[in-house]
Specification:
The protein is built from 8 helices and 7 strands; from the N terminus they run E-H-E-H-E-H-E-H-E-H-E-H-H-E-H. With about 250 residues, the protein is an alpha/beta fold. Strands 3-2-1-4-5-6-7 form a 7-stranded parallel β-sheet, with helices on both faces. The protein is globular, with a radius of gyration of 17 Å.
């Protein structure tokens, strides 16, 4: 369908995969609505897009704040007429990775940002997509949701598995409405989230990982496909497989 003139909401748009996808989509003519908790970050991305001739808006919202999300989406629809694409990318991991060391606060934070935010944003856009007769929802999960390990951690792995399952449910629940849901499942991506690991990967290790820009290319491909076509699940892995056993043992 192409992205020129399409209205795309991108959560977690201030850095990493969200930022790279926003820049890529805007370069193809999309109107990008950046959502993130830190206004300075998403405003920086907004200015970068506008400096290149693109169109963007920024909304300092926590995706786990259902009321704020519910207020933002109608404003966008009133201004632009519809919502074409939702990228549920916001999320973070926890410093502690083991079952007994992960704190209640860490559990709540990871669940809220990765899962509840994904659900709340989806609930907010689906009525408008249903009315339009089409729409694209792309959820960002992780290989930790497929192959749980100490590297991903207990709660992050569990929540990303839930995001994968949620995407499958959407395709069942919304079948024949013109709304399609895809889940992108990256392996190790060199993003700021790696800095939260108990043992952050080295510079050399990061150089072999998938980049945010690589992942953004895949996400944009899904978004620009004709609405008749869906990629329900897409795994993205580094070509080079590194030995992470030493890092896992130190967690």
């Amino acid at each position: 369908m192409g992205l020129n003139g399409k209205v795309c909401i991108i959560t977690g748009g201030g850095s990493g995969i969200g930022k790279a996808t926003a820049i890529q989509m805007a370069s193809e003519g999309a109107i990008v609505a950046l959502v993130g908790r830190t206004l300075s970050k998403i405003d920086t991305v907004k200015r970068e897009i506008e400096a290149s001739g693109g169109r963007a808006e920024s909304y300092a919202i926590d995706v786990a704040d259902k009321k704020s999300i519910g207020a933002m989406v109608p404003k966008l629809v009133k201004k632009y007429g519809t919502i074409d694409v939702l990228l549920n990318n916001a999320g973070h991991s926890s410093p502690h990775r083991r079952l007994l060391s992960t704190t209640p606060e860490e559990i709540e934070g990871v669940v809220e940002s990765n899962l509840l935010g994904t659900i709340y944003c989806t609930q907010a856009v689906v009525p408008y997509m249903t009315e339009a007769g089409e729409g694209t929802i792309i959820n960002v999960a992780s290989m930790a949701g497929v192959n749980p390990s100490g590297l991903g951690g207990m709660i992050y792995s569990a929540v990303k598995a839930a995001v994968i399952n949620f995407t499958g449910f959407l395709n069942s629940d919304l079948r024949n409405t013109g709304i399609r849901a895809s889940v992108v499942i990256p392996g190790e991506v060199d993003t700021p989230i790696l800095d939260k690991r108990p043992v952050p990967p080295s510079k050399d290790a990061r150089s072999t990982m998938v980049t945010s820009e690589d992942t953004a290319e895949a996400i944009t491909l899904i978004a620009r496909l004709p609405i008749r076509t869906n990629i329900p699940e897409l795994q993205i892995r580094p070509t080079y497989v590194r030995d992470t056993s030493g890092e896992s043992e130190l967690i």
